Amino acid sequence: MTFATLGLNPAILKALADSGYTQATTVQMQTIPVALEGRDLLVSSQTGSGKTAAFMLPAIHRFASAATQPATKTPNQMRQSAQSHGHRPRFQAAQPKMLVLAPTRELALQVTAATEKYAAQLRQVKAVAILGGMPYPKQMQLLARNPQILVATPGRLIDHLNSGKIDFSQLEVLVLDEADRMLDMGFIEDIEKIIAATPATRQTMLFSATLDGMVGQMAQKITRNAHVIKIAGGSSKHENIQQRLHFVDDLAHKNRLLDYLLRDVSIDQCVVFTATKRDADVIADRLNIAGFSAAALHGDMQQSARNRTLTAMRSGQVRVLVATDVAARGIDVPTISHVINYDLPKSPEDYVHRIGRTGRAGRNGLAISLVNHAENFSVRSIERFTKQQIPVEIIVGHEPKRTTSTAARKPAWGNGKRVGNRVDSTAAPKRAGFSRPDAPRKGAFKGPRSGARQQFSDR
Ligand code: AMP
Q1: pLDDT per residue over 224-243, tens digit each?
Q2: Atom of ligand 1 at shortest distance to CA of 330?
Q3: How far apart are CA 322 and CA 301, in angstroms?
Q4: Residues 386-430: tens digit of each pLDDT
Q5: Closest residue by CA, ligand 1 atom 16
Q6: What is the dihedral of CA 423, 424, 427, 429, to 10 degrees?
Q7: Number of domains comprising the chain
Q8: What is the CA(109)–ligand 1 centre distance, in A?
Q9: Ligand 1 centre and the CA of 384: distance in Å?
């Protein structure tokens, strides 16, 4: 389905054509017509499915149409303009028409950038990001422009709300993006407080990997007669992302394997996930010494440094991003061809989010996990969650000394039927499906520097 058939404003259609979008994605096809009617929406959809445009295009369409209508002011607006004699007083609170709440700064910045792209032909539609880590004076300047669209992380927004810098009395559209992540991160009270400051007449759209549990309960409370769209559940299959795992004996083996994998010429760009911020730094340093263009991304870094790193990733200057879960949540760089789980994530949901950093915008991706034998139980809970078995592969010359029993690798769900093209580590070694690059370069990474980490301990 084309965007023209959805009846969107011609200025939006032009911006979409300039962005190279020809067809609406499934979530866009299903969401946009309902959102244009002004109905509340609960949408469960896979990360990378095009959900930003699904909620942003109808909102931009609404603001573009309002801008061409003769101005009709609400009583509140008339009172304010009478008081101000047509001038905005210096400290008048910003009165946005749309608020998008997002769990992380990266996602909020991405949504803002996407909005600017979609509204590129509409000078009157402005979006601003309000994030933790950004200097307050800069944010005051942005708010003074009184943008229609605010994209914010909940914590910093609460600060501005408490200090009277933002007034939600004119809010028309509220979006909760990755609502499940926001609840996981403990934002429930902030979200409730923010919603309580918005008019009951607003349109509410909630996007989440799952609509079950706490998210479902919150959705019930904050929406009215919502239309429910389920594109894919939280255990989404990510069919365009190939998955596999390699068992490792110890840390040295893991590092050798990482080095080998990163020399694969088919890797365009790669995100390597670590369990801790410190490891993200240490591994990025080691990889740089080994000749890879690597950079760390984690929550201890200043926001400006995080932004610089992401810009370097987007421009291709950085090939390997070594990141922790929180920092990497929401990263959308279509050229990320591989994800490597150097450490397994804490939860199966995080696994799904991690591998969703690749295979973006309809491309294919490969997600590889490096797994200690003792972590087989974590693999099984991931497999139970995704209802997919992760094939085990062995790379000739990098075989694990230990084997993991076939019994322990039986499918973790259903009736025990084998799924996929599994090569168990107890079976004959099979060469993994990618080209062996050149022999390691001189000075190549040879495992941890002495004293860097003695134990096979990832947390
Ligand atoms: P999102 O799920 O909104 O983060 O979008 C994931 C990626 O898909 C982003 O890189 C978008 O620019 C891209 N995208 C979204 N909608 C479309 C579309 N209709 N056609 C092509 N690319 C799209």
Answers
A1: 999 999 886 444 567 789 99
A2: 4
A3: 13
A4: 888 999 999 999 999 887 654 456 555 544 333 333 333 333 333
A5: 50
A6: 60
A7: 2
A8: 15
A9: 29
Whether the model clears a pTM of 0.85, i.e. scores above it, the answer is no
Q: Tell me how far the alpha carbon of residue 89 lies from the centroid of ligand 1, in angstroms.
A: 39
Are 355 and 405 found together in one domain?
yes
Token pair listed for 203: 């349109």
Q: Whose CA is nearest to atom 19 of ligand 1?
A: 24
Q: Is-contact 93 116, C-beta < 8 A?
A: no
How many Å is the Cα radius of gyration of the chain? Answer: 24
Same domain? For 247 and 224 the reply is no
Separation of first and last alpha carbons in the chain? 47
Tell me the pLDDT tens digit for each residue of 161-194: 999 999 999 999 999 999 988 887 889 999 999 9
Do 265 and 407 reside in the same domain of the chain? Answer: yes
DSSP bridge partners of 270: 320, 338
CA 332 to ligand 1 centroid distance, Å: 9
Q: Is residue 83 part of a domain?
A: no
Protein residue with its CA nearest to atom 7 in ligand 1: 361
- Give every CB contact of residue 403 below 8 A, 6+ residues apart in sequence: 425, 426
Pocket residues: Cβ below 6 A from ligand 1: 21, 23-25, 28, 48-53, 332, 334, 360-361
